[in-house]
Structure formats: structure tokens, C-alpha cells
Design a protein that fits this description.
heterodimer; A: 388 residues; B: 650 residues; alpha+beta; 23 helices; elongated
């Protein structure tokens, strides 16, 4: 198999395409009647899928190791942007989560997720075995906690948790000691009362609503209950595309983002919803395999960071839709309507492809300064294996 | 970072021993990668399992819930029935109005406060009332309830405009009661109002929503069920904002029934007016006039003054009017014709007379001596109203000249002669047989039963033994006896119709909206007066004489249009004695006309009116004049025989 073909890992590409297509399909049924052309969310989503696919293609064809070079600047720039959005961003629904620059909406927390993965991958790869020391572990935690705290202040609890999930997945594979994991866990436990005290009301309400959605069917528990009703009423085969009273009569809210899975569950039933879970499973399993097979630790951690991000978001979102998880405002990757998140997720998938493409190059021994070895290796290596 | 990079490079190129470390490290990474992969599979399997549970195992539950979300069954309220007089002239009208309705399920808890505040500002309702209604409504949150009625058009429009700020709030058209003859029919029709909080459960058991208006007094209350009708229902598909999309099915309500009364607007108004003219001559005049048709017990007129305009109780009524009604010591809100209790005075004497005749204590011609006073051996003196006495009195004169001494003798006996009297026990039997001590059964709420005093009652309630004087008082309708004017009128109706004691009829029939008669309220006989035909004839002759005889006490009741038979009553009650050391008294006149074949029986009461002969009899005369001639009589003060209520004016 050629390098060029190996970039196109079907176990990554088919689920990704299937999931973004499902997203567009569902969005096409839930728009307001007045929305046409570019106003329609499905069309907008299509545009961003195209942009995201272009980004993925670029990433797939680039050597992921080039990301070493952008790791630090991207992290610093990202942190500044997230900090800036807290201070200057547009307020929406009580939260400051994005900038509007002309027609472009920039949501720094989405970009920051990828920046953190890249920077953390670089940091952990450089640190090597020292990840088993508490000092390195805490340093790596610091890298994550800075953006996580800023995002939490926005407030965006869900995205803040994504950063923590990314960190957990990466330090776990990097080899952190099991018992070290108790330290942040203990910290979290100790911080909980304070977090509860400082948390926004909506966070508390959502937490209570998760524990008992019936407690306030029109308040915080409303969405949880309606999502469960939507999914449950889908049955085996669903009510059909564009059908389903829960979504069409708008009992279900936040249909385009947080609860798109519930819409899908109502319209496509158990078969469709299970399909989504299976595609995610294939994609994530392949991401883990790519991580295992990666030629270097940087690629390994990068891949596992991406896998961790996708897994945490998809699991928490679907879990929230089916009532297994609290409502955290985490969207469903690839399906939910989203501009930045879609492009970033597809770009991350492009990176996965790049890591995969480079896995079986000459037995890996990274030596010296990264770019010297990269250049040397690229010079030494034929573009394609010799023909028989 | 450059330093870091160098270190990494060095360690990677480090001593050979590090290779085994690297191998262990690589194994660990592989292992942990696989663990993560396993975690992904496990977690996603859990999601799939949950999906199976929701979509396959429990799908029916959720489909039901989705249907419940989508469909709303709401009651369709019937239109309240109307009330017509005997000639099918309407007494009440339903006017269109705007009402504010709320569907609690669509009101987010978090916004309830602000929505209530907005509604209170727009409708003028008290926020507490709105909050109470909403909290009640939350028991059945999908069902819209009315929280405000008779909302101004401007407010209704403002609420409609602000619909998006007021989720779950709707303006609907409703109806309001307008009573066309306010005060003349106020007591009879009563009024409607919101369900009283204390009887909420009773009404809910009857299928009445707590947000409805219900009849609170009068016929509106008595016939609440028939007037209200029965809810219909409609099943509609709604969206998440509660907006109605389309109707799935509906069942029409059974509209409220109409009542057709036995009274006519013309007669009721005229008789009330006659009573009012007489009472207007007094300070704070208060009185009752009841007219009955003796042949079937139908009510011709039922007036209790002062009365009230029942429109005052609708939304937008003047609060100062209500305050005045509530604080007036004459208690205008009470229909004294059926709920007022008074000693009947001499109009009661026919009962004792009947008892005496039927028990044979005296013969009609038996004469008893009246010296104007009867002093018992105990020293108690019992007076006649005529201090000089009536001389030798038989039954005929006893009634027509209203001799108290005669009735003392026949009831309680006379210790100085061999007359024993029939006693109170027998008197009580007759009082009951004449319809006293129990409600007459008119179609109005709150009718009083009155009191027929017995020895047991007195011992039990006053702790005193029954004495002869009590029997004397009871026989002449004084002392402990308590009756309603309606009971007196029904007794005279029975005397007039040959002895049939009837249930008064106020509602003649209940009809549906097409005018089909659903129910005709029957003429029902409560009993027969225990008086033989012969004795009844004697009594009627005495009553005829009481009005038309030379010494009759009721001569001021003589009408030029019909021969009137009747009996005056002057019932003293404990109060402030006047300058002549007389107790205050209620003035009564009761009887029937024409005397031979009565068309009307009546009871007139002037509260604190003094002498029945002077205060009440002229009113009865004017009523009969009017009923027999169809013309309003002249003002009482324009008559040559006008007796000013001097006792009052003095």
C-alpha cells in the first residue's frame, strides 16, 4: 500500500463522512421555514463541512511533525484569544464564547482544544519517561488548567471539562502513574464545594436536573425530559426524516446543537441512533489504533488527544441525550451545528490521517533537534516504496 | 525549549540500559492505548444499551408521552343558561367579555413571577389571587384556566401583543351576566362569582373548574347545575409554545338550561314598587311582600326591601356600593321573605283557632269573656291590645277583632273558669301541620325553617321550664315563635284554596336552548290543613269579617277591586320601648283575595312598622288593587284615608 493511499484510511474517513452527512441531514429537517439559502443551517453546515474537509485534506498531506513548530505559538495565541473572549467577547445566552469578525465567528475555545492537544503532545513527548514524576504531571496539568479555567469563566463548563478529558487521556497513555491520578481527583473533590459556590446558577440547576429531571419539567429538566421522550418515541425505525412531533413541533429545544442526537433518535430510530454510535466507535477505535501504531510519541499523544477529545464530547453529549449524563452544553462532534468546532474537528481528523500515513516509515528513531531529523528523514526516504 | 529538545535528544540517544526502559515504556503505552480503546468500546456499548432500553424496550411509554405533549384535551365550557319570567321576558343576559386564560404547563416556573406581575398590572387582578389560581391550576398543568374575567378591551389587546413575553397566556372571549332588572329581581336571581375557596372541593366534585364563576346566591345558586350545563371537550394538536395547530376531535358542550319563572317582570316590579312607596314614608323602612297563587303555590311576587342591584356583584361593581350593602343594619343582602325570621303576631291566630275547633275545646259559638287583661294566679298579667276589653267574644269575633284574651283561654286555659285549653303540645301539632317549623321548599337557597317552640326546646335552649304564659304567647304568634313571611303567605294560600298546603313554586319549568321543556316543576302538596270543611268555612268567614266587618282590624286592607280576607298582626319584639312604654313591633297583614275564590294569597311585613292594621294592611290593599285592576294605585300619601306612620314620625 502506498503512502498516498494510506493517508486515506477508510476506517477514519467513512465514519467521518457518514457522521457529517447525518448532521446535515438532520439539520435540513429542523430549520425554521423562513430559512432559505445561506440562512438555512443545513446549508451553512455544508459550507463549514467543505471548509473543514479542506482543512482535513491539508492536515492529512502535511507531516504532522511540522506541528511541533506551531505548538507553542498556537498555544500562546489561543490562550490570549480565550482570555480576550472572556473580556471582550459577544455575550450570548449569558456567556461570552465568541468573537464576530465580519461574517466570521471565532470561538477561541474550539481552536484552543486542538492547540492544547498539540502543545501537550509536544510537552509529553519531550518529557518522555519523566511523565512518571509528579512534577512533570503537574506541569502538564497546568498547561490544561489555564485554558480550562478561562473557558470555565466564560462560562462554558462543558468545554472546560473537555480540556480536562484531553489531559487525562494523554497523560494516561504517556504513562503517568496510576496513583498520581488521585491527586487531581482529590483536588477536584476538594474543589467541588467551592465550585458549587462559585458556579453559575445554570450549572447548578443542570446538575440537579440531571439527578432528577422530573423535578422541574419546564425548567432545567425540561430539555433532558424532552430529549428522552424524543429518542424513546423513535422506536426501532424512527418516525422518518422530517417527521416526529417532538422535534417538528419544537417541544425539544436546542435541536441544532446539544440535542441533535435526540432529533436523530426520533427521526431515524434505534437503527439510526445505533448507527451513529457505531460510526463513532469505529472512528475512535481507529484513532486509538493510529495512536498505538504512531511512529513517535508526539504522534501517539496527538492521536490519543484527538481521540480523547472526540470520545469525551461524543460520549457526554449522547449520554446527556439519553439521560445518562448531566447537561453540560457539550455538542456532538461532526453532527451538531457549529462553525469552529466542525472545522477544528475535521482538521483534527486530518491530523489523524497524517499520523497514520507516517506510521510505517523507516524504523522510528527520532534523533537530535526535531526539524533536523525530519528533514534528514524526508531527504533519505523515497516518496513511494520501490516497485517490485 | 531548545534545552528541552536537547535533553530529549540526549535521553533518546542515551545509554543502552535505557532501551529496556524504552521497551517497558512502549509496552505500557500499548497497554494503556488498548485500555483506552476498551474504555471507548465499553462506554459506547453502554450508550447502545441505553438506546435499546429507550427505543425498543420502553418506546411505548415515550410515544405516549410524546402524544401527550402534542395533544391537549381541554374542556369546552357551556354558555350559562338564562332566566325568563312567566311571559318569557329575559331577566338576565350574557354579555361578551374578554377573559385571560393561562395554561400552566406553558408557564416556565422561573418566569412565573414576572408573568403574574405583568398580568396583575394589565388586568387589575391582585397578584396573590393570580398566584393562587395558577398554583391550583398546576394540578392539571395542561388544562387552560381562566385567571381574570371581564378584562378591558385595551388590556386584552395589550396582552395579545405581548404574547411572546407571556408564554402560556391567552385571551379568550367569555360571557358576563347582566341582570336586566337589577334590584327588583336581585334577591330572587342572586348573582354569580368566583368559586369560593372554602367550597372548592364541592364544586370540583361537580365538574366545576375553580376558575369558573358560579351562582353564589338566589336562583343562580339554586339552579347552578342546570344553568351551567355540561362541559364539552376538544382535543387539539399543539406546538411547544402551546399554540394550537389543529383540532383532532371535539364534543360540543351541553349548553346551560334556561329557567322560566312563575313571576312576571311587570307584577314583581309593581309590587316591589308599592312596598317601596310605603316604606319610603318611614325612616330606614324595611319590609317584605309575598304574593302567591293559592291554586298551585306559584309565586307572583317576592319582594324584600331594602334590596340590592345584583349587577353590583359582577366584575367592575362599585366597591362602595358593596360596602354599604354589607354594613346596612337592615341587612339588604338577605332575602327576608324566605330567610328573615319574625314573630308572626295575630296573623298566627288562625292556627290556635283551628286547634280549638278541631279538638272541640270550644264550639264556634262559645263565648269567652275579655276584660282586656288576664292575670294568672302566679301574678303574671296578660293583656289584650284593647285595654278596655272586647267583652263576650266568640271565635268569629276573636279572629276578626283579634282578641288576645280569647286565644289565651282556648290555648292555655283559664284557671278561673273550667276551660282547660288544648295546650301547647296540641298547638305545636297544628303549627307544624300549617307548615311552620320547616322550610316551605321554595327554589331558593337559604330558606329558614323558623321555630315552633316546644317545652323541650325551651328547656334545652333557654334552660327554663314551659309555663302557661308561653302557650298564651305562642297562640297569638308572639314570644318564641319565629316564622318567615313566605310561611305565612303559604298558610293563607292554604286557607284560601280549601286547605291544601302547597310548596311554593318560583321556577315553573326548565327548558333547553331550543325552548323544549326538559322539566316542569310540579305542583306539590306538602299536606292538608287539619281543619274540617265546616270549620275552614268558619275561619274564612272570620277573616272576611276581619277586613270587611264594622270592627274588623283589617279594614285598611279593603280594596275596591276585590273582596279581601285577611288578618292583621302586630308582633312585639324585645327592643327599646317607645314613649308610651310599648315594645317595638313588626306590622303584618296576611290574607287572600278575592275572598270567595282567591286568586292571590299574600303576606306583608313592615319591619318595626308598628300596628299591622295601619302599616301593613294598606300595602296589601294596594297590592290587591294593582293585581286585580292592572293599574298602579295612587301614592299612599295621596289617599284620603292615608295614615302617616306617626309612631315613627313622632
Amino acid at each position: 500500500m502506498t503512502h498516498a493511499l494510506r493517508r486515506f484510511d477508510l476506517a477514519v474517513i467513512i465514519p467521518s463522512i457518514a457522521l457529517v452527512s447525518a448532521g446535515i441531514l438532520i439539520l435540513s429537517t429542523s430549520g425554521d421555514p423562513g430559512q432559505t439559502g445561506l440562512d438555512h443551517k443545513a446549508v451553512q453546515q455544508g459550507v463549514f463541512v467543505a471548509i473543514g474537509l479542506a482543512a482535513a485534506l491539508v492536515m492529512a498531506f502535511l507531516d504532522y511533525r511540522l506541528l511541533h513548530a506551531v505548538a507553542l505559538p498556537a498555544f500562546i495565541l489561543g490562550t490570549i484569544l480565550v482570555a480576550a473572549v472572556v473580556v471582550f467577547g459577544d455575550a450570548s445566552l449569558g456567556a461570552q464564547r465568541w468573537f464576530v469578525v465580519g461574517p466570521i465567528v471565532i470561538q477561541p475555545s474550539e481552536i484552543m482544544k486542538l492547540a492544547v492537544i498539540i502543545f501537550l503532545a509536544r510537552f509529553l513527548a519531550r518529557r518522555g519517561e519523566r511523565v512518571r514524576s509528579i512534577r512533570t504531571l503537574l506541569l502538564s496539568l497546568l498547561i490544561v488548567l489555564v485554558p480550562a479555567a478561562l473557558v470555565f469563566i466564560e462560562p462554558d463548563l462543558g468545554s472546560a471539562l473537555v480540556f480536562v478529558a484531553i489531559w487525562l487521556a494523554m497523560v494516561f497513555v504517556a504513562g503517568a502513574r496510576w496513583w498520581h491520578a488521585l491527586i487531581p481527583a482529590g483536588m477536584a473533590l476538594a474543589a467541588f464545594p467551592f465550585a458549587w459556590f462559585f458556579a453559575q446558577d445554570y450549572m447548578r440547576e443542570r446538575f440537579v436536573a440531571f439527578l432528577d429531571p422530573g423535578s422541574d419539567p419546564l425548567g432545567a429538566g425540561y430539555n433532558v425530559l424532552q430529549a428522552r421522550i424524543s429518542i424513546g418515541s423513535g422506536g426501532w425505525w424512527g418516525q422518518g426524516i422530517g417527521q416526529g412531533t417532538q422535534s417538528q413541533l419544537e417541544f425539544l429545544r436546542v435541536r441544532d446543537t446539544d440535542f441533535i442526537f435526540a432529533v436523530l433518535g426520533e427521526q431515524l430510530g434505534f437503527v439510526g441512533a445505533l448507527g451513529v454510535i457505531m460510526f463513532f466507535t469505529i472512528l475512535l477505535a481507529q484513532a486509538v489504533i493510529i495512536s498505538i501504531r504512531a511512529r513517535d510519541d508526539f504522534g501517539r499523544y496527538l492521536a490519543i488527544g484527538i481521540a480523547g477529545m472526540l470520545f469525551f464530547q461524543s460520549f457526554v453529549n449522547i449520554g446527556m441525550n439519553v439521560g445518562l449524563m448531566p447537561v453540560t452544553g457539550i455538542t456532538l462532534p461532526l453532527l451538531s451545528f457549529g462553525r469552529n468546532s466542525l472545522v477544528v474537528t475535521l482538521a483534527a481528523i486530518g491530523i489523524l490521517l497524517s499520523i497514520n500515513a507516517h506510521r510505517t516509515a523507516a524504523p522510528h528513531r527520532q534523533q537530535g533537534v526535531w526539524w533536523v531529523s525530519s528533514v534528514r528523514r524526508m531527504a533519505a526516504r523515497p516518496e513511494s516504496p520501490p516497485r517490485p | 525549549m531548545a534545552v528541552n529538545g536537547d535533553q530529549t535528544g540526549q535521553s533518546a540517544a542515551g545509554p543502552p540500559g535505557s532501551k529496556s526502559d524504552g521497551g517497558a515504556s512502549a509496552n505500557r503505552k500499548l497497554r494503556r492505548g488498548l485500555i483506552l480503546g476498551g474504555a471507548v468500546l465499553g462506554a459506547n456499548a453502554a450508550l447502545a444499551g441505553r438506546l435499546w432500553q429507550l427505543q425498543v424496550v420502553e418506546t411505548e411509554t415515550y410515544q405516549e408521552q410524546a402524544a401527550r405533549n402534542r395533544l391537549r384535551t381541554e374542556p369546552v365550557r357551556p354558555v350559562r343558561g338564562l332566566v325568563f319570567d312567566r311571559n318569557r321576558e329575559p331577566l338576565v343576559r350574557n354579555l361578551p367579555e374578554f377573559g385571560v386564560w393561562v395554561t400552566p404547563a406553558d408557564v416556565p416556573k422561573s418566569r412565573e413571577g414576572s408573568i403574574i406581575a405583568s398580568l396583575a398590572a394589565l388586568t387589575g387582578e391582585r397578584p396573590d389571587d393570580l398566584r393562587f389560581k395558577l398554583s391550583q391550576a398546576r394540578y392539571d398543568p395542561g388544562r387552560p384556566v381562566q385567571v381574570a374575567a371581564n378584562v378591558q378591551r385595551d388590556s386584552a389587546l395589550a396582552i395579545e401583543e405581548r404574547r411572546h413575553d407571556l408564554p402560556g397566556v391567552q385571551v379568550r372571549s367569555g360571557i358576563r351576566r347582566q341582570y336586566l332588572h337589577g334590584d327588583a329581581f336581585g334577591h330572587m336571581l342572586g348573582f354569580v362569582g368566583p368559586v369560593p375557596a372554602e367550597s372548592l372541593e364541592e364544586y370540583q366534585a361537580l365538574g366545576v373548574g375553580f376558575d369558573e364563576t358560579v351562582g353564589l346566591s338566589g336562583l343562580e345558586r339554586q339552579f347552578q347545575g342546570a344553568l351551567r350545563g355540561t362541559d364539552g371537550s376538544r382535543k387539539v394538536e399543539i406546538d411547544a409554545l402551546g399554540r394550537e395547530l389543529n383540532e383532532i376531535e371535539s364534543e360540543a358542550p351541553v349548553e346551560g338550561r334556561h329557567l322560566v319563572l312563575t313571576v312576571s317582570v311587570r307584577e314583581q316590579r309593581a309590587i316591589r314598587e308599592i312596598l317601596a312607596r310605603h316604606l319610603a314614608l318611614r325612616d330606614a323602612g324595611a319590609g317584605v311582600a309575598v304574593v302567591i297563587r293559592p291554586e298551585d303555590g306559584s309565586v307572583v311576587a317576592l319582594a324584600s326591601l331594602p334590596d340590592y342591584d345584583n349587577n353590583a356583584f359582577g366584575a367592575g361593581g362599585d366597591p362602595s356600593v358593596l360596602t354599604r350593602l354589607v354594613t346596612d343594619p337592615r341587612r339588604p343582602l338577605i332575602n327576608h321573605a324566605v330567610a328573615g325570621l319574625y314573630p308572626p303576631g295575630s296573623s298566627y291566630k288562625v292556627i290556635a283557632a283551628s286547634a280549638a275547633l278541631e279538638t272541640g275545646i270550644v264550639l264556634p259559638q262559645t263565648k269567652i269573656r275579655c276584660d282586656g287583661q288576664l292575670v294568672l294566679p302566679t301574678g303574671w298579667a296578660f293583656n289584650d291590645w284593647l285595654a278596655t276589653g272586647h267583652g263576650m267574644v266568640d271565635l268569629h269575633r276573636g279572629i276578626s277583632e283579634s282578641c288576645n284574651i280569647y286565644f289565651y283561654n282556648i290555648s292555655g286555659g283559664n284557671p278561673y273558669t273550667n276551660l282547660t285549653g288544648f295546650g301547647n303540645r296540641r298547638l305545636v301539632e297544628y303549627e307544624r301541620a300549617f307548615g311552620f317549623g320547616e322550610a316551605s321548599g321554595i327554589d331558593l337557597p337559604g330558606e329558614a325553617a323558623g321555630l315552633v317552640p316546644t317545652a323541650e326546646w325551651k328547656q334545652g335552649n333557654l334552660g327554663q321550664p314551659w309555663v302557661t304564659g308561653d302557650t298564651y304567647h305562642a297562640a297569638i304568634g308572639q314570644g318564641l315563635v319565629q316564622v318567615t313571611p313566605l310561611q305565612i303567605a303559604m298558610m293563607y294560600a292554604a286557607l284560601g284554596n280549601g286547605g291544601r298546603l302547597l310548596r311554593p313554586r318560583l321556577v315553573d319549568r326548565i327548558v333547553d336552548t331550543q325552548g323544549n321543556v326538559l322539566q316542569r316543576l310540579p305542583v306539590s302538596e306538602r299536606g292538608q290543613l287539619p281543619v274540617s270543611k265546616e270549620h275552614l268555612r268558619l275561619l274564612r268567614n272570620a277573616l272576611l269579617e276581619a277586613v270587611n266587618g264594622r270592627n274588623g282590624t283589617g279594614k285598611y286592607a279593603r280594596s275596591e277591586f276585590a273582596v279581601v280576607a285577611g288578618k292583621t298582626g302586630t308582633a312585639e319584639y324585645s327592643g327599646t320601648r317607645d314613649s308610651q312604654d310599648k315594645l317595638p313591633s313588626h306590622a303584618w297583614f296576611a290574607g287572600y283575595a278575592p275572598a270567595e275564590n282567591p286568586e292571590y294569597a299574600f303576606a306583608v311585613l313592615v319591619r318595626d312598622g308598628g300596628e299591622g292594621a295601619f302599616a301593613a294592611a294598606p300595602i296589601a290593599r294596594d297590592i290587591i288593587d294593582y293585581l286585580m285592576s292592572g293599574e298602579m294605585p295612587p301614592l299612599p300619601q295621596d289617599r284620603p284615608d292615608f295614615i302617616p306612620p306617626t309612631r315613627r314620625l313622632a
